[in-house]
Amino acid sequence: MIYSIVDIETTGGHASGNRIIEIAIYNFDGEKIIDSYHTLINPERRIPVFITSLTGIDNEMVAQAPVFADVAEEILDFTKDSIFVAHNVNFDFTFIKKEFQALDIPFNRSKLCTIRLSRKIFPGLPSYSLGNLCASLNIHVQDRHRASGDAEATVRLLHKLLLNDTEKFISKSLKKNSKETLLPAHLPREQFDKLPETFGVYYFHDRKGKVIYVGKANNIKKRVISHFSGKQTNRKSQQFMQNIHSVNFEVCGSELLSLLLESHEIKKYFPIHNSAQKISGKNYGIYQYEDHAGFIRLSIAQVNKSQQPLMSFPSIGDARSFLLEKVREHQLCHRRSGLQTADCSEIHACTACSGTTKSVAYNVKMKRALASFKEEKYSYLIKQPGRSKDEYGVIVVENGRYLGFAYIPNDLTGNTVEEFKTFVNRHPDNADIQKILAMHRNKESGYISLG
């Protein structure tokens, strides 16, 4: 078996928008280097100053170097019928594959990652970066951050891995169904193997244990691996892969329960790699107060913790639409109902604004309207499957407000909010939660209206 140990230097940290400036390949038979290849590459763009300070490669050095198209056939031939090996293999492989794609040339190779193998074969080391790992294993590195020096160090590392691979991790990693090289370099395989194939929520953590991404899934294991099997070429996706050091999960009984938990956890942890639902949905509420003239008035404002609204809505537009309907139905004043700031015009003739209707008479109509508000604030339960055959899930909404959900043993039954609300893990209500509930409520699956 021949291993092609590869290292590249590039104009930046992600394949989308950056190019290779140097490549080194050592063909290794497991005992000795049998051939080598090295060249600078003209990236056909300026090399950033920070890359020059890191690698020593400047624009003048690559000015007369070949472009990638000039050396593509040599790289294809040199890596043909061999195992593509690199330290954080997906980084190097993605860059090279992208260069070949630009030339409409397919590039597919079996891969091995020396970071992942080192974590298996030499567990418990303080760091698995190439420099620190080589220091721990007494591997001398020459020309650090140059392709030849790093590739040669990786050859010596691979040799040590082969000699110490008593559990046959390398051969296991090369099996077609292994998925080993799809996983991020720092994610332990044991954690991935423990992921269930069921509904739930999963959490990616960085090296300090901080949650950096929360996702929901109908099949947790399948969804997690899908993050790593796509094209990881842009800066954001490659940073995401590099930041993942662990994964854990929470099983849920259904897709709806997974959606509700995911929404809550995103707002709880504010993960850096989640873009949607991070900002808590600001519900808009209808509030009641009495003015100096004794008129009962209404206003629309964002819901806050200090005051309970008469009703809440996902958006200000929804609140205005609801109020407009009530104003027309009960012949209320637009200004006193929070729909406009000026007195009602002739188009919306209002006896309160004209002074012909006093506060006592007007308030009778307003109280009649307010009574109809209360009719809209209904309570309901949504019963869902449990996480096992011994339980079921219940989502509880009281007076239009989401309280949370609970998993209930099968031998405990009930059909009222009061019976179930004490079991609920309380979660904040917000616009995102209301949208999720509305979508599923319309399906009327397990929905029990309590009026």
Question: How does the SSE layout of this entry go?
Answer:
Elements: E1 3-10, E2 20-28, E3 33-40, H1 49-55, H2 59-62, H3 68-79, E4 83-86, H4 89-102, E5 111-113, H5 114-121, H6 130-136, H7 147-164, H8 169-173, H9 189-193, E6 200-205, E7 211-217, H10 220-226, H11 235-243, E8 246-251, H12 255-269, E9 284-290, E10 296-302, E11 311-313, H13 316-330, H14 351-354, H15 359-376, E12 380-385, E13 391-398, E14 401-409, H16 417-421, E15 425-426, H17 431-441, E16 447-449
Parallel strand pairs: 1-4, 4-5
Antiparallel strand pairs: 1-2, 2-3, 6-7, 6-8, 9-10, 9-11, 12-13, 12-16, 13-14, 14-15
Features:
451 residues; five-stranded mixed sheet; five-stranded antiparallel sheet; elongated
Low-confidence stretches: none
Q: State which percent range the strand residues make up.
A: 15-25%
Mean pLDDT: 89
The structure class reads alpha+beta
The main sheet comes to: 5 strands, mixed
Note the overall shape: elongated
- Percent of residues in helices: 25-40%
C-alpha Rg (nearest Å): 31 Å
Query: Termini distance?
Result: 72 Å
> Strands of the biggest beta sheet: in what spatial order?
3-2-1-4-5
- Total DSSP helices: 17
Number of strands: 16
Give the gist of this structure.
Helices cover 36% and strands 21% of the residues. It is α+β, with helices and mostly antiparallel strands and 451 residues long. Strands 3-2-1-4-5 form a five-stranded mixed sheet. Strands 15-14-13-12-16 form a five-stranded antiparallel sheet.
Task: Write up what this structure looks like.
- The protein has 451 residues and is α+β, with helices and mostly antiparallel strands.
- It contains 17 helices and 16 strands.
- It has helices spanning 49-55, 59-62, 68-79, 89-102, 114-121, 130-136, 147-164, 169-173, 189-193, 220-226, 235-243, 255-269, 316-330, 351-354, 359-376, 417-421, 431-441, and strands at 3-10, 20-28, 33-40, 83-86, 111-113, 200-205, 211-217, 246-251, 284-290, 296-302, 311-313, 380-385, 391-398, 401-409, 425-426, 447-449.
- Strand 4, helix 4 (89-102) and strand 5 form a beta-alpha-beta unit.
- The protein starts with a strand and ends with a strand.
